[in-house]
Amino acid sequence: MTVSREKLTLVNVNPCKACFPLGVATAFYGLAKSLTLLHGSQGCSVYIRRHMATHYDEPVDIASTSLTEEGTVFGGEANLMKGLDNLIRLYEPEAIGVGTTCLAETIGEDAVGLVKKYQAARPNLKTKLIAVPSPGYGGTQYEGWFKGCQAVVAALAEKTPGHGGINVFAPPSSPADLRALKKLFDESGLPYVLFPDLSENLDRPYNPVYKRLPEGGTPLAGVKAMAGARASLELSRFSPTSLSPGEFLAANFGVPLIRLNPPIGLRDNDALLTTIKDLGGRVSPETISQRGRYLDAMLDAHKYNALGRLGIFGDPDLAYGLTRLALENGLSPTVVATGGAAPTFATTVLSEIDPVAKAARWSKLAAVDEADFDLIERLAVENEVNLLVGSSEGRRLAEKRSWPLIRLAFPVHDRQGGGRIRVFGFDGAIMTLDNLTNAIREREETTFRSHLKATYLRRAAEPLADLNFRPTQVAAVGGTEPSFRFNGGPDFGDYKGDFRDDLKGDRPANLKSDFKDDAKATPVRSLSYNSCRQAKKDPDPATLRPAYGLPSLPGPPEAHPCFSLTAARSFARLHLPVARDCNLSCGYCRRDCDCPNESRPGVASALLTPDAALARFLIVKDKLPNLTVVGVAGPGESLANFAAVAETFQLIKRYDPKISFCLSTNGLSLPRYVRDIKDLGVQSLSITINAIDPLVGAKIYGSLTYLGRTYAGVEGASLLLANQLGGLKMAVDLGLLVKVNTVILPGLNLGQAVKVAQEAAALGATVGNVMRHIPVPNTPFGDLPQVSQVKLRAISWESQAYLPQIRHCQQCRADAVGLLGEDLSYLFRPELRLRPKEELEPTAPLAPDGLADPRKAPDFPALVKVAVVSNSGVIVDRHFGQATRFFVYETDGESLRLIANQKVDLGPLGGHGGGFCGLKDALAEPKPEGFIVRLVAAAATCDAVVATRFGQSPLDKLTARGVTAFASYDAVDQAVLAAAKVVLDQRSLAKSG
Amino acid sequence: MDFKSAVLGKYNARIYKNRKDHILEVKEGLVQKIDANTRAVPGLMTNRGCCYAGCKGVVVGPLKDTCVITHGPIGCGFYSWGTRRNKARPDADGNNFIQYCFSTDMQEPDIVFGGEKKLKKAIDEVMAIFKPKRIMICSTCPVGLIGDDIHAVASQAEKDYGITCVAFSCEGYKGVSQSAGHHIANNGLMKKIIGTDDGGLLGPRSINLLGEYNIGGDGWETERLLKKIGYHVVAVFTGDGSAADIARSHRADLNLVQCHRSINYVAEMMKTAFGVNWLKVNFIGLSSIAKSLRDMATFFGDPEIIERTEAVIDEEVKAVTPEMAAYKSRLQGKTAAIFVGGSRSHHYQDLLRDFGVKTVLAGYEFGHRDDYEGREVIPDIKEDADSKNIENLTVSPDRRYRAFLSPERYLELKEAIGLEEYAGLIRAMADGGWVVDDLNHFETEEMIRLLKPDLFFSGIKDKFVAQKAGVVCRQLHSYDYSGPYAGYRGAANFGRDLTMGLYAPAWRLVTPPWREVESA
Q: What is the 3-state secondary structure (H, E, C) of B38-56?
């Protein structure tokens, strides 16, 4: 908890204060039948009149001496004299307050001397002249007010015989508040003089005849008698001694000064009433009733107030009084600011808040003087303000941040009733309290339905009204917990992960043992797993769909293969590899742009420029009329290359306005671009969220770059998470369909997937998708075994309870083309000519002539037989579990020959529904029971098997039968040679060993 | 006693002598002369603002792509922050600085020891936080007196940051009103912004809209019309305006001048330097809009645009006619007094006429004699001590740019549509109307008492005296949170607001029942 008094900047950005002469002129308005003349440029009086008139909705007369450039050279004496002449002649005021301005003071005008001179030349002058030096740089309107008061008292008060009267000096306050104050003193029976009395002059009753001179106000005689009063009451905590009218009377006439806080809230009203009683005055029964009503109102409002976190700004006295009122009502004033310099302000205010804050365990608060709105905004964001109290100049901030603003301070330009603001007295306190509580209730009342809907109903059709407001209940406590909040991050509210619970659920990262547990983990906890199995038996696709988790959604998802299984069967998609850069390093990823055959996210054969991407789109669209979705899924992060993505989509849209766009993102830059994404016509997004707990995230992610800064560890993971969830929320609000991917990393985030689903569902995601990581050599998780298929499914079904899951994800390449599971991207790569698929089916050895030279065959007795799982026969492109046939090669390690294209007998149909590696389970024809055993048996006739990937179980089985499993994404011939080399090495090793 | 003597009767001889030449009764067929743009009388509560208000508040303040730093104590920046209801959309870079107020917040030590360092630091901070491409610095009273060289600071900032930085010595005491500030701002724009961007192509029939500050959306409604007909609006000075647009405005074919007072210097200088002709237009009031649009079509002389102009006028008039007629039926025969800045007191008479409202008094806060009597009096206007202090920037023709019109066509058109001409307010008024220059608070009260207008149009400072005396007021500086009033749709809005005001139930309820009984 710090007291921030440093002036953060030299430039005042959006000032929270007006200037000195405004205060002086306002104080003069409280003197009966008087006028103000400002000595300087006419702009000063015009600007001040303008500001006072809009606030009070009353005519405001402040004259000017209209100094011109000539006056700056020869002095302004002539103008001042003329001004006084004219005012006196036309208006006949009882007094004229002569204030100065920056101009007059800078050229060294001696207003006091000049006025004396004027008076000396006119001995019969009835008008009292009160001169006060008041340059704009002399302070704020708050100090000007006291200076004006003091000048009037100094000029008018005369040594008077002692009388029983009381002097009352108020801080800058509204006419209505001063009326309330007068009522209180009228009822007390004490003789008193209130100065300045704006109550009638700046809030006049209707009268068609305009009175040129203010009729109300403190009579001059009243001020004159102030010197003989019994005591002065100054209702200000911060009026500087040098400017205080009470101090002046005490020092010059020995009038005792009683300083009190302005009567705002219960305690300070009680203090004032006690003082009145001590002075022998009465307190009316009506006031006592009002006190009771305020207490009643406090009790009625107590159950809402703890939700309010106030940002209060205004004059020191008002801000301080409102802080005390807020505290006694359980509202948390977390930022209290004043625009001018007030050295004791921050410490005084903090000493009020501190005990309460300590008891309530909130540590986020700031009190500051010399604040501009730039600083107030920064502090308000940092300290989680949700309600502003101050002048209408805070409206820009209120609009920008969607915080309500209660207008209680000068100036109010955008509402009626500036003159009728009420904070003084018990009734003022009731009105203020009602205003504050109602602002809180209004938001509760208007947001709770959408909040509940988002929390408890699956898919919120309407956007949440205000995410920012909802979690405040959680965040209002805090203080001791680590806070994952970043200035650079988006302002999406007070999200806080419940990471401690999560830690208990996850075992420490002992990968080996964890993996073993995993392998055994066949029992499935979730009931939904069984219901799934039942549903699967039902052949009717209409009833199948709900079991697969997709509610029937209109529009794009029906044609988006990744969102809908039905769509995946008939609609093709195209991934355009235009995103080169990445802003996040994930432990399981390596971006490759030169690996032509590997199939996994992060891989593309070549990067495309937007123009080239358009060209590819046109070619593909021509060949695949069922192409409905164009997406960017890498190889880097789509939003780290937003310009390229945007250009690509715009180009394509020009040619095919019907195509639907999709993006895959890690979410880091999502809040920043989500509106642009929407504008581009993107309808769906995939966000990969691997952890809800930043401590877990910190283990998965290396470093990330955001807005030019690099973050790592928990800090980075928190920032990422904040942006992912914030971005997700914004995307949903904008009507985008969002799929949330979670890569399961055994031992790292097993417990997280369900939490991700929960959070994502609450924020309105459409579907979820859990997937295994693909171990990539030379990455941090390259040696981390994959989670078992069984476990993956269990997680998927557990997540299903919160968020519908898809289970047909193919973990596509960044340049995938075609139907899911039937990647045709190799057909469209620049290095290969576009040929009909059948041309690529091998009918003869692919190897160049000579390699399979029969004459050489006898020389190579140690031939190796390699079975290759491939769809095209050109490259290794299929998972072992997907094999329906093997290309069997014979090789000596240098040349090779295809000896068979062998169909595998997979046995009778029926039984186990999914492919056992999970790749085609949802898409493929039903697989025969025990087909994997048959596959392994078929493969066991060879020395090695080459496929893109192997499940753990077949891998074990193959190894057990002495077959070398070789994962590759290469061209078939190269993969076979490489596999053979391994086998031959093993053999020679075995021989020598 | 006539109106004039009644109003001025309470003045002493010296003020009477001063003020009598600022008031005249319109006599048709007579060439009349009025005193204007002279010093306000001290103590008379003029409604005039200062030089700073004219420069920062009016002309450069609305530039949305520019950070305008007020160099001075806090008041001036604070008071000129968002008070003119200029509307602006963010520019291409997403900037909209008119929501901001930047001030160096000078304190006493800065006055004593100089504020240049603080200004320099303020620029550094604005650059660091907001990274604007342009910064403008506006001086307040003390700056010129303590000798801060804001122009040197500006040059240094240009060197340091590679930005455009324009300093305006618009200290409040310069000149006699806001008008001096307009002139200073015009000079600054001409010196540093206009003509600095020769890149990119402009569309055919390219025009600039000068003196349109987009109060309450006026500029947007005007632009909508112009675009509908087929004009390419290059730059607006300066409502929803950007310095980036103004930098290329010199290549436009024609300048339209809406507010003559505040921007005629730029119009004239652009004509001399770049050969851009200017045409006084008025998009307030149905007949004025039609005349302005037809004059423009004549200027371009393109049959297609002439046809399109007629079609658009026809369509737009038809669209608002029923509404206008409804309001007219309730406003016909009312009288009005208008006292606004430098052009609107003229413009709104045309619109009031559309509703059958007669203007009985009109005056400018800070107009010059040419705004009252027409531009032909400019050579006769004597330069006084105050106007001498404002730089009269002279520019020379830039041979690289060519006027849109051939010299022959120019002469022909100058006659036909009055290029570079403005006839002034007096000629627009009917016989017997009163014209008052620099109306002050005291005279306002007298005038309302004597002329009893049904409607009073002015600003926030003087409106309450009239309003509380039972006269319906509309603020014509800021439109009382309403607008737009320009264009066809704006005309209907204006009619709606007047009707709403005149027929508000409150006026009928102000007399209490016991008084009604007494008077009956």
A: CCCCCCCCECCCCHHHHHH
Distances (CA, A) of A316 to A109, A321, A885: 31, 8, 84
DSSP calls for A115-130? HHHHHHH-TT--SEEE
Q: Which residue of B has its CA nearest to A21?
A: B75
Q: Which of A838, A826, A805, A816 lies closest to A918 in space, CA to CA?
A: A805
Mutate to test the interface with B, among A8, A16, A50, A118 (most CBs of B within 10 A): A50
Nearest CA in chain A to B475: A54
Q: What is the pLDDT of residues A47-58, one digit of tens each?
A: 999 999 999 999
Per DSSP, the three-state class of A539 is: coil
Q: Which candidate from A10, A85, A136 shows the least CB-CB separation from B122?
A: A10
Domain assignments of chain B as residue spans, ordered by start: 51-172
The CATH class of A840-992 is alpha beta
Touching check for B10 and chain A: CB below 8 Å?
Answer: yes
Residue A544: pLDDT band (50, 70, 90) is very low
- Chain B positions touching A9 (Cβ under 8 A) are 125
Long-range pairs, B152-159, Cβ under 8 A, ≥24: B152/B116, B153/B116, B153/B119, B153/B120, B153/B123, B156/B120, B157/B120, B157/B123, B157/B127
Count of other CB atoms within 10 angstroms of residue B75? 31
CATH topology of domain A20-262: Rossmann fold (3.40.50)
Do the domains A286-444 and A20-262 match in fold? Answer: yes
pLDDT tens-digit series, residues A375-431 = 999 999 999 999 999 999 999 999 999 999 999 999 999 999 999 999 999 999 999
B103 contacts on A by Cβ (under 8 Å): 11-12, 15
CA A721 to each of CA A258, A704, A731, A758, B391: distance values in angstroms, whole numbers, following the listed order:
56, 12, 15, 14, 59
pLDDT value at A464 more than 60: no
Nearest residue to B286 (alpha-carbon basis) of B488, B484, B498: B488
Say whether B43 and A72 touch across the interface (CB within 8 A): no
Question: Under a CB-based contact definition with an 8 Å cutoff, are residues B97 and B125 in contact?
Answer: no
Q: Collapsing DSSP states into helix, strand and coil, what is residue A911?
A: coil
B183 contacts: CB under 8 Å, gap ≥ 6: B54, B175, B265, B390, B391
- Smallest CA–CA separation between A85 and chain B, in Å? 8
Pick the CATH number of B51-172 from 3.10.20.30, 3.40.50.360, 3.40.50.1980, 3.40.50.720: 3.40.50.1980
CA distance A169 to A246: 7
Catalytic residues of B: 50, 53, 84, 182
Q: A559-818 belongs to which CATH class?
A: alpha beta
Nearest CB to B442; choose among A22, A53, A90:
A90
pTM, to two decimals? 0.68
Taking the C-alpha atoms of residue B209 and residue A735, their distance in angstroms, rounded to an integer, is 40
Q: What is the average pLDDT across A159-179?
A: 96
| B99 part of contact set with chain A, CB < 8 Å | yes
Q: Do A208 and B174 touch (CB under 8 A)?
A: no
ipTM over 0.90: yes
Query: Do the strands A584-586 and A701-706 form a parallel or antiparallel pair, or are they unpaired?
Result: antiparallel
Residue B69 contacts A, CB cutoff 8 Å: yes
Residue A843 is classified by DSSP as: S
**CA distance linking residue A268 with residue A313, whole number of Å:** 19
CA distances from B385 to A82, B367, B378 (A): 19, 17, 17
Query: Superfamily assignment of A286-444 in CATH?
Result: Nitrogenase molybdenum iron protein domain (3.40.50.1980)
Give domain limits for chain A: 20-262, 286-444, 559-818, 840-992
CA distance B378 to B374: 8
- Sheet with A896-903: list strands edge to edge: A896-903, A885-891, A864-868, A944-947, A964-967
